[in-house]
Please model this.
Amino acid sequence: MNELILVLDFGGQYKELICNSIRNLAVYAEIRPGSTPIEEIKRLAPLGIILTGGPDSVYLPDAKKADPEIFSLGIPILGICYGMHLICHLLGGKVGPGEIGEYGRTKVKVLAPSILFSSGTSNVISSNPIARNLIAGNSISSNPIASNLIAGKNLKVLMSHRDSVHRLPPGFTLTAATRNCPAAFENTGKKLYGLQFHPETKHTDSGKEMLKQFLFSVCGAKGDYRLDDYLAAQIKKIRAKVGDKKILLALSGGVDSSVLAFLLAKALPGQLVSIFVDHGLMRLNEGDEIERLFSAQKFALIRVNAKERFLKKLAGVTDPEQKRKIIGNEFIRVFEEEAKKISGIEFLAQGTIYPDIVESGGTYGAVIKSHHNVGGLPEKLKFHEVIEPLSGLFKDEVREIGRKLKLPATLVNRQPFPGPGLAIRVIGEVTEEKLTILLKADAILREEVKSLRRRPSQYFALITDSKSVGIKGDERTFDKVIALRAVTTDDFMTCEYTALPHKFLRRVSMRITSEIPEVSRVVYDITSKPPATVEWE
Ligand code: XMP
Model:
């Protein structure tokens, strides 16, 4: 059994980032709902608990709460943002709306030594008016902004809140503040810590060090989580479950299903049958590349060329969600038809990963993915059991397992590609003509990106449903508009548009307009997420 850090979720957008950051520090962490019963928490016996952020106001009646008994278990607790408010509210302090919200990188002064900010702080709290008021139980909302606070250390941290701590709970010390509000407090005797900001993001100076301090200095973790152990344990488990039976996998060529194929081939040599449904909406030559790579491996690969079927179903459809639904359903139908032709398969493997489980509101091992790229489970097929050996892992961990299993780097580092494929990058109706143009434009962009020193996290072309006037030779044209998109991100929840060099964009634009006669114009999307999403549809 690994050491466990429990991440109790109150609807925070960074819960996965918190959990993943902890695992990257070699400590196993799992996300559970904030309402997890105290008995369950006791049973899990975590080394430490993190309370996440969340959208609620803790002082309102229907705000999500943790069982207050968690504070008397003797387990170290770190509350982040809303999590800090919970500690405050449930232990007798006061939380209220701030006069102003703080969003983005914000300056914080460290006021007192704290194990979380392990180095170089001076104790200035006793000379600090805001700190004195808080401890004495006064509300800070009426206080002047504490710009005169400190001679302590400055940090830039990521803030995203409107509510703030107005009065500390008894027994707590203020250890950091911004100009507007408390930024950190603690009760070292009870091992309770609160941070108003987000140490889990890279936008917080020394955030990783703060998490490290919590894990290793406060919780006393040893750091016993290793992916090698996960891999070995899964192989053992798969072998015990499947025995000498055959197992089926829907292979898409994406990272998850590819890693799973290699894992199953290692665990069960000769027993894996994989079906690759080529919906004809992959990038140029991608279907052939997948076939080439996987047919050289030691398992059976069946490729189904179903482009015609998919395009027929998509004819006349312009609504993006409708397209997704049609593709998901058709995928299952094709998969079922193929699977029925193979006899004696009792097991099905799915490339579900941990974020899929978390996003569908379940816990590891309890939920079968409902929104997977393949669109869900084939209902008509009866399997003895469905196995999901990657369902405890984050994407970066899946990639790491892929490296350990010696998957080619092109596959392990493959940029994300949506399940519905190019159907959502052909804006409006998907037609053969638009698809062919897009394939060419996207291939040009991808070829040129190879020359960049740093590649964006995701980059692609899309074909808009606009037309624009152009001039080619002496001829006036009225033709297609291609848009280019490139984003930089760690997690795809928020993204910056990538500031690609102008010279690069000019070259790509010139190549697309000269090599693809139907394109009259190329535009570059400079919108970040939010407010835009990565995909246009
Ligand atoms: P958005 O557009 O939501 O995209 O900002 C975030 C990430 O998700 C990918 N994406 C999808 N992936 N099925 C998928 O498997 C989908 O329907 C889908 N829509 C978007 C997108 O490419 C980006 O990496």
In short: Residues 262 and 406 are 8 Å apart (CA to CA). Residues 324, 373, 416, 418-420, 458, 492, 529, 533-535 surround xanthosine-5'-monophosphate (CB under 6 Å). The chain is about 30% helix and 25% strand. The radius of gyration is 27 Å.
